[in-house]
Write a structure and sequence with these properties.
single chain; 365 residues; alpha/beta; OB fold (Dihydrolipoamide Acetyltransferase, E2P); Rossmann fold; Ribonucleotide Reductase Protein R1, domain 1; five-stranded mixed barrel; 32% helix; 24% strand
C-alpha cells in the first residue's frame, strides 16, 4: 500500500531538511531499537542507525518517537535503517519524575518525548470519577505541558452520557482550570461531540490524546476513525478506575483526513523544562501577582498580597492556588535536577579529557 506523505503532514519545509540520499517517513510506533514507519512505499519496520544510537545515548529526548519525521537510508543488503530524526516542530515531553518510598520527588531530570510534531493536544478527562467529577489538578498539569510542547490544548470531558446532572457546572469548573482553552463534552459511544473533535484535525493536522486509564481515549479514536482500530475495555465497577488497554503509542491516519496518536493511560507525569506553560494555565494568579505590593512577593503572608486577598474574598479557589504552588515547586526542582545532571556530564567530560592529556604526556619520549 502506498501513501501520499502530504496527507501525513509532509511539506516543502520538511523536505528541505531531508539529508541527501535518504527518503522520508513518519514514525507510527516504536519498539526497542526499532520503529514502524510510514513511507511513500508503505509501512516498514526499520532499525536505528549508528547516528541515532549515538544521539539518543547522549540524550534520551533524541530517541525517535511516535509522530517524528525521519530520514531512511537504503543499505547495500536492500533494507532501510532509520538514519536521522528530522527537526521537530513540536514535542510533548514529560520529565523523569516519580515518587520515592517516603513520598518525595525522585528522578534523574531526563525527559521522555511522548509525541512529536503534534498540532493539537486532546486532554481527555472522564466526567465520572470514583471520588470526584473531574481531576482539575491533572487537567491543569496536562494543559500546561501541552502549551509547553508547542501544540494547542483542547480539553475533552469524556463519557458525558454517564453524567446525569450538573454537566454545565462541571464544564464551567474545567474552564476555570484551563483558561483560554476550548472545553467540550464528548460521548464517543453516542457520537455526541465527535464531529466537533474531528474538526480540529482537518487536512493533515495531528493530534495526541492524553489522559488517565478509563478516560475513553481509545473509544474516541475508534469513533474518529469510524472503525475498531484500537482495543477498548470497560472501567472496573469496583473503583471506577480504568484498565491499561493501550500499551503503546501509535499514530493512526484517519479516513477523513488528519492523524491521531493514542497513548497509554497516564498515572503520573512530571514537568520538563517548564515555564510558559504553567504561566498560561495560571494566568489569573499571574495577573493577581502583578498587583502585589512587593515585586518578589511569595504569596505566603506578605502585606499587600493581592493573591492572598483574592483567596480570602473567594475570588481565587484555594485548590487552584495549591495546584499552582505544587507545579511551581516541581518546576524548580526539575530545573535543579537538570542543571545538576548537566554539571555532572561536563565534569565527566573534562575528567576524560584530562586523563587523555596526562596519558598523552606520559607517552612522549
Amino acid at each position: 500500500m502506498s501513501y501520499d506523505l502530504s496527507l501525513l503532514g509532509w511539506n516543502d519545509l520538511r523536505a528541505a531538511e531531508l539529508p541527501a540520499g535518504t527518503v522520508p517517513a513518519r514514525v507510527a510506533r516504536v519498539d526497542r531499537g526499532a520503529a514502524e514507519v510510514i513511507a511513500a512505499d508503505g509501512q516498514l519496520q526499520v532499525k536505528y542507525g549508528a547516528r541515532v544510537r549515538r544521539a539518543s545515548a547522549a540524550d534520551p529526548v533524541a530517541l525517535p518517537c511516535v509522530g517524528d519525521w525521519v530520514a531512511l537510508r537504503l543499505l547495500p543488503e536492500g533494507r532501510h535503517e532509520l538514519d536521522e530524526v528530522l527537526p521537530r516542530t513540536t514535542a510533548f515531553i514529560r520529565g523523569g519524575v516519580s515518587r520515592d518510598s517516603v513520598g518525595g520527588l525522585s528522578g534523574d531530570g531526563q525527559g521522555q518525548v511522548l509525541a512529536a510534531n503534534v498540532d493539537v493536544v486532546f486532554v481527555a478527562e472522564p466526567s465520572m470519577h470514583s471520588t470526584d467529577f473531574a481531576d482539575l489538578g491533572r487537567i491543569e498539569r496536562l494543559v500546561a505541558l501541552a502549551w509547553e510542547s508547542g501544540g494547542t490544548p483542547v480539553v475533552l470531558v469524556t463519557k458525558s452520557d454517564l453524567f446525569e446532572d450538573g454537566l454545565d457546572q462541571l464544564l464551567a469548573e474545567v474552564r476555570v482550570a484551563a483558561p483560554g482553552v476550548d472545553v467540550h463534552a464528548v460521548s464517543s459511544l453516542h457520537g455526541d461531540g465527535v464531529p466537533l473533535v474531528g474538526s480540529y484535525l482537518e487536512g493533515s493536522r495531528t493530534a495526541v490524546v492524553l489522559g488517565p486509564s478509563g478516560a475513553g481515549k481509545s473509544t474516541l479514536v475508534n469513533a474518529l476513525a469510524g472503525a475498531e482500530v484500537m482495543e477498548t475495555q470497560q472501567v472496573r465497577a469496583a473503583d471506577g478506575r480504568g484498565r491499561h488497554t493501550t500499551v503503546h503509542r501509535e499514530l493512526i491516519p484517519l479516513p477523513g483526513g488528519g492523524l491521531v496518536i493514542d497513548t497509554p493511560g497516564i498515572r503520573r507525569i512530571g514537568l520538563y523544562d517548564m515555564g510558559e506553560g504553567v504561566d498560561r494555565v495560571f494566568a489569573d494568579i499571574e495577573e493577581l501577582a502583578e498587583r502585589c505590593r512587593f515585586a518578589d512577593c511569595g504569596h505566603s503572608g506578605e502585606p499587600g498580597c493581592a493573591v492572598l486577598a483574592a483567596l480570602e474574598s473567594g475570588e481565587l479557589p484555594e485548590r487552584r492556588l495549591e495546584s499552582w504552588r505544587k507545579l511551581q515547586r516541581e518546576a524548580v526542582w526539575m530545573a535543579s535536577r537538570t542543571d545538576a545532571r548537566l554539571r555532572k556530564e561536563q565534569q565527566n567530560k573534562w575528567r576524560i579529557i584530562t586523563k587523555e592529556m596526562r596519558r598523552s604526556g606520559r607517552s612522549r619520549p
